[in-house]
Design a protein that fits this description.
alpha+beta, 26% strand, five-stranded mixed beta sheet
């Protein structure tokens, strides 16, 4: 908890071995950092990265969130889980 908000930490390895996202369930908001971008995912060419882990994290841990979840990525435009499930080539 911080600033009156309750965050759920979601481990999303792939971009880096310790990658994670923060989900604010009460507001239906995901802060995805460099795990999930609008119609893309983060880089996976670092020493502790794994493309297969990154894709698995997105599919199994993020795409199970409600479609209307607003996603704030580390870079680029805001998106939603529903949009990403339909248009993200890594879906």
């Amino acid at each position: 908890e911080a600033a009156g908000l309750s965050f759920k930490l979601i481990a999303t390895p792939g971009h880096t071995s310790g990658g994670c996202c923060y989900y604010i369930e009460d507001d239906n908001v995901l802060i995805s950092g460099d795990t999930l971008f609008e119609e893309s995912v983060g880089r996976s060419d670092f020493p502790t990265s794994s493309t297969s882990e990154l894709v698995r994290s997105v599919r199994e841990k993020l795409f199970v969130l409600p479609d209307e979840t607003i996603v704030y990525p580390g870079d680029g435009d805001i998106t939603t889980i529903g949009h990403e499930k339909e248009y993200n080539p890594y879906a």
